[in-house]
């Protein structure tokens, strides 16, 4: 029997990564023979680790913190969406060399529009945060045709810079956190505040009866931001577990040429996380 094609996620830390489990289930459910592991790659070791992985028959990688910029630099060819995001979360060994892609934004859009049934066209969107995560999802959000995207960030200069970078893609502007003062249709938290259980210092007026709140972060229960949004009357809330599964599905499709059943895997993952 042929050896399975090898894939992995590179990150640091990476022990908590759910990607091996997600891709193992995708492979089972689609009948693909692959091996997928999590590899801890300390900062500065990315190039050597990549070389070693490819030299031993590796076919593709997911890339997570802190290596998305190193992966961007290492790719021979970039997809337009990776170019635009300025970061790579998926590498695929192809005939023309190492292809760098970014499936994060597509994963978010698929979760919002397909899984959660949220309309984006013509809507007023507030994107909270202006770091790598916000930059990765801004292009796809603008492509969905919203009425406007306002970026609010603790450091207002970064919000303005990010808005300027994407100015030709749609109606986007940047302000300080307190500069967002009225209710939005959709609020996307792309800060890393949830990872330390914090909530960005936002005005509660950003939430109205029609406001849906989404956090790119996820955990066993609702994040601090989602609890805050719920307490202030948001119409609905969702964490980023769906985005995680959907971005993985986009990577799997790039590598294997077929789309895995994400709803089933998301359900299984959610059940496993709720278990004590
Ligand atoms: P990532 O790749 O996760 O986006 P990053 O590039 O370091 O990480 O960006 C982190 C983002 O979370 C930034 O927008 C940061 O705000 P600043 O630019 O002002 O630093 C934001 N952030 C982190 N902790 C926060 C907190 N407690 N309140 C508000 N914003 C926070």
In a few lines, what is going on in this structure?
38% of the residues lie in helices and 21% in strands. By secondary structure, the chain is of the alpha/beta class.
3D architecture notes:
By secondary structure, this protein is an alpha/beta fold. It has 2 domains: 5-102 and 242-274, 3-Layer(aba) Sandwich (Rossmann fold), CATH 3.40.50; 105-239, NAD(P)-binding Rossmann-like Domain (Rossmann fold, 3-Layer(aba) Sandwich), CATH 3.40.50. 38% of the residues lie in helices and 21% in strands. It has 10 helices and 12 strands. The protein has helices at residues 19-30, 46-55, 68-74, 80-85, 104-115, 132-143, 156-165, 224-231, 241-256, 262-274; strands spanning 5-11, 34-40, 58-63, 77-78, 90-94, 97-101, 124-128, 148-153, 172-176, 186-189, 212-215, 236-238. The chain has a 6-stranded mixed β-sheet, with helices on both faces. A 6-stranded parallel β-sheet has the order 9-8-7-10-11-12, sandwiched between helices. Helix 9 (241-256) crosses helix 10 (262-274). The longest helix has 16 residues, at 241-256. The chain is globular and about 60 Å long. The model has no long low-confidence stretch (mean pLDDT 96). 2'-monophosphoadenosine-5'-diphosphate (ATR) is lined by residues 129-134, 153-155, 158, 191-193, 198, 200.
């Amino acid at each position: 029997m042929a050896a399975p094609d090898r894939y992995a996620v590179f990150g640091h830390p990476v022990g908590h990564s759910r990607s091996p489990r997600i891709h193992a289930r995708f492979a089972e459910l689609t009948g693909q023979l692959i091996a997928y592991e999590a590899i801890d790659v300390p900062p500065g070791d990315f190039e050597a680790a990549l070389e070693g992985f490819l030299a031993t028959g590796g076919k593709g990688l997911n890339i997570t913190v802190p290596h998305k910029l190193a992966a961007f630099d290492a790719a021979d060819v970039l997809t337009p969406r990776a170019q635009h995001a300025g970061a790579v979360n998926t590498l695929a060994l192809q005939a023309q060399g190492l292809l760098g892609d970014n499936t994060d934004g597509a994963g978010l859009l698929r979760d919002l529009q397909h899984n959660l049934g949220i309309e984006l066209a013509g809507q007023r969107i507030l994107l909270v945060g202006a770091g790598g995560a916000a930059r990765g999802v801004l292009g796809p959000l603008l492509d969905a045709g919203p009425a406007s995207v306002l970026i609010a960030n603790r450091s207002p200069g970064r919000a303005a810079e990010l808005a300027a970078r994407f100015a030709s893609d749609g109606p986007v502007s940047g302000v300080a956190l307190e500069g967002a003062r009225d209710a939005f249709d959709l609020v996307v938290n792309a800060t890393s505040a949830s990872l330390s259980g914090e909530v960005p210092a936002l005005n509660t007026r950003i939430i109205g009866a029609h406001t849906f709140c989404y956090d790119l972060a996820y955990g066993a229960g609702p994040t601090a931001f989602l609890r805050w949004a719920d307490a202030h009357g948001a119409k609905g809330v969702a964490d980023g577990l769906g985005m995680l599964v959907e971005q993985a599905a986009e990577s799997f499709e790039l590598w294997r040429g077929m789309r895995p059943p994400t709803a089933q895997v998301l359900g299984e993952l959610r059940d496993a996380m709720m278990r004590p």
